[in-house]
Amino acid sequence: EIVGAAGTPYEKGIFDLEIVVPERYPFEPPKIRFLTPIYHPNIDSAGRICLDVLKLPPKGAWRPSLNISTLLTSIQLLMAEPNPDDPLMADVSSEYKYNKQLFLMNAREWTERYASQ
Q: Active site located where (predicted)?
């Protein structure tokens, strides 16, 4: 589980994650995805996360020195600071860029609907 940070539209939300640790860990990154729906430009409807530390080089930034705790912190940072220039969800990304109020409203609504306990 990951908790939405204060001051974000995901505040007080509790999001379930699936973490699959591969046999070659730590030489290969764990596969992490959201099980709880989340309205975010870098997380798609299947829960896949677009984040460089979840991918091997040359495209990714995974290093064996990273651990699951570091990855969860990186995911929390991504939740707080989306990267609209590398989106998985183009429509959510353009909403984030060009109509932030609507994005924040939708993200809060999804958090209340899916991530409230």
A: 50
